[in-house]
Design brief:
With 329 residues, the chain is α/β, with parallel strands linked by helices. It has 11 helices and 10 strands.
Length: 329
C-alpha cells in the first residue's frame, strides 16, 4: 500500500471547503499595532505604511481604536484630504457612555464601523441581557448614520456558546453586516476555532471574520482553521504587530491561504518591503528566523540541503521577493 492510499483511508477531521473562495484580509497594523509598548507612529509614518498596504493590495485597514476615537479620526481625515483610496474602518464600544457622539463623528470619515460588545461576564456590562440590549440599541443608532456596520465580540472563546449564538443572531436580525469573533487572549487551538466558526456559520448568513491573538503561537493556524470552517475574512497585522504576543501576521496568513488555493488578492512579493517598513517605523525588529519575511528563511547551510534546496522550502522564494542563498562552508 502506498502513502497516497494510506492517507486516503484516514478519516478527514475537517470537511472539504471551496479552496478557490475569495477571502478578505483586514489589516489592523495601524490600530492593533499601536497597543505595543513604546510603539508610537506619527501621521507621516502612518501614511508611509498605508501607501505600502495599498501596494500590497490590502482591501481594508482598521485605523480607529475604541480607546482614542477622536484622535485617530484625524488621520482618517488626512487620508481623505490626500485622496488616498483605501477602505477604512474602526472600532467603537457599544456600551460606551459617548457612543452616539463617537458614531456620529466616525461615520463622517470611515467607510465602515464595528461595534464591540465584550461577551465575557467579567467585563462590563456584567449580564447577558444588558449586553444584548446595549449592543442592539447602538446598532440601531449606527445604521441611521452609516450603512456598513458590523459587530465584534471580544472574548468569543471565553463565553458560553449559546449566548454567543444568541447575541450574534440578534445582531444579524437588527441589521449587522459583519460578525467578528475575537480569540482575545489567544488561548484557543485550531480545532476549537474550527468548531466555533463552523457552528456559527450554520446559523448566520452574513460574512464572519476571525481576529486571532498569538499568545500561544497559534494565531496563524487558528486563522486558517477559521477559513476552513467557513469564515469569509480575517484580521491581520504586518509582522504580527500587536499587544502582548501580537496578532495573526499578514505575511504568514497570506502565504498559507495562497498555498491552500484561497484567493486574497495580496501581492506576495511586496510583503518583504512592507515588513521592512513596519520594522523601521515601529522600531521593533523581527527575528531573522521569522517565517516568510525573516532574513534566513531561504538560506541553506546544512550539506544535506545543497544538492536539492527547493526540496526543503515550503514555497518558491521568488513569491515573496527573496533569492535562495547557499552556504558552502
Amino acid at each position: 500500500m502506498n502513502l497516497n492510499t494510506q492517507v486516503s483511508n484516514i478519516p478527514e477531521r475537517f470537511e472539504k471547503v471551496q479552496t478557490n473562495k475569495r477571502i478578505t484580509l483586514k489589516d489592523s497594523t495601524l490600530r492593533e499595532g499601536l497597543d505595543v509598548p513604546k510603539v508610537n507612529l506619527s501621521p507621516t509614518q502612518k501614511m508611509r505604511i498605508t501607501q505600502l498596504l495599498i501596494q500590497v493590495k490590502i482591501p481594508e485597514i482598521e485605523v480607529v481604536s475604541p480607546g482614542k476615537i477622536f484622535e485617530d479620526l484625524k488621520f482618517v481625515k488626512s487620508l481623505k484630504e490626500e485622496n488616498v483610496s483605501i477602505k477604512t474602518s474602526g472600532l467603537i464600544y457599544a456600551h460606551s457612555p459617548n457612543y452616539q457622539e463617537e458614531i456620529k463623528q466616525a461615520s463622517q470619515y470611515l467607510n465602515r464601523l464595528d461595534l464591540l460588545m465584550p461577551v465575557s461576564l467579567k467585563r462590563k456590562p456584567y449580564d447577558h441581557k444588558t449586553k444584548i440590549y446595549q449592543l442592539l440599541e447602538a446598532l440601531t443608532f449606527s445604521l441611521n448614520h452609516l450603512a456598513e456596520i458590523g459587530v465584534g465580540f471580544p472574548h468569543s472563546t471565553q463565553t458560553e456558546l449559546n449566548f454567543l449564538l444568541e447575541i450574534a443572531t440578534e445582531s444579524v436580525r437588527y441589521g449587522a453586516k459583519r460578525i467578528t469573533l475575537y480569540d482575545t487572549n489567544g488561548s484557543s487551538d485550531p480545532f476549537e476555532i474550527y468548531h466555533l466558526v463552523r457552528y456559527l456559520k450554520q446559523h448566520i448568513d452574513i460574512p464572519l471574520f476571525f481576529h486571532g491573538h498569538n499568545d500561544l503561537g497559534l494565531a496563524t493556524a487558528n486563522s486558517l482553521a477559521a477559513i476552513y470552517a467557513g469564515a469569509e475574512g480575517l484580521d491581520v497585522t504586518m509582522n504580527g504587530l500587536g499587544d502582548r504576543a501580537g496578532n495573526a501576521s499578514l505575511e504568514q496568513v497570506a502565504i498559507n491561504l495562497h498555498l491552500k488555493g484561497f484567493m486574497t488578492g495580496i501581492i506576495l512579493n511586496y510583503l518583504k518591503s512592507l515588513s521592512k517598513c513596519v520594522e523601521e517605523e515601529s522600531g521593533l525588529h523581527i527575528f531573522k528566523l521569522t517565517p516568510v519575511v525573516g532574513d534566513y528563511v531561504f538560506v541553506h547551510k546544512s550539506p544535506a540541503h545543497l544538492e536539492c534546496p527547493e526540496l526543503f522550502e515550503a514555497y518558491d522564494p521568488k513569491w515573496v521577493g527573496f533569492e535562495r542563498e547557499l552556504i558552502h562552508k
